[in-house]
Amino acid sequence: MARSPEEIASKTRTKENPMESIQTKTLPPHPLPGRVIYRAVGKDSPISSGEMSVSFGTYSEAYGPMAPHRHAEESVYIIRSVKGRVRYGGEPDALEHTLPLEDGMLLHFPESEWHVFEYEPGGHIDAMFIYGTVDNIRPEEG
């Protein structure tokens, strides 16, 4: 039986101790086109926030190709990249730049910049996403 976001987050939060914690390995998967997302902080997440969003994701052949997309301002920390890259800038059918991804890289996308994460056959990307909002995060989710 699936656990609710509230059941997943550590309930150590009190008025005197406002910090919450979570083990990322306990986050439920949310498959989306081209990736699987694990929500940690934000709307509909184990740690609720109306101000910011933090999630983790994996891009791999198991989830198919991702389409170029744009959304709220975003910072992305590349946890692990095996033959991964990001294409960005310009328009969705003519992205202007390609950047090979490396473990430990931090990327920052301005609001509404088109981008897409890709990988060579057998590759994958594991990343953490940070947004200063809880809205306009994933276009597929409305």
Topology:
Blueprint: H1 5-8, E1 30-32, E2 35-42, E3 47-48, E4 53-60, E5 74-91, E6 94-100, E7 106-109, E8 115-131
Describe the structure.
This protein is an all-beta fold. It is built from one helix and eight strands; from the N terminus they run αββββββββ. Strands 1, 2, 3, 4, 5, 6, 7 and 8 form an eight-stranded mixed β-sheet that branches. A hairpin with a 2-residue loop joins β5 (74-91) and β6. The two termini are 26 Å apart. The model has no long low-confidence stretch (mean pLDDT 87).
List keywords for this structure.
eight-stranded mixed β-sheet, mainly beta
H/E element sequence: HEEEEEEEE
- What does the main sheet amount to? 8 strands, mixed
Beta-strand content: over 45%
Question: Which residue ranges are poorly predicted, with pLDDT under 50 across at least 5 consecutive positions?
Answer: none
Number of DSSP strand runs: 8
Radius of gyration: 16 Å
Compute the separation of the termini in Å: 26 Å
What is the average of the pLDDT values? 87
Alpha-beta content class: mainly beta
Shape: globular
**Tally of separate helices:** 1
What is the percent of helical residues? Answer: under 10%
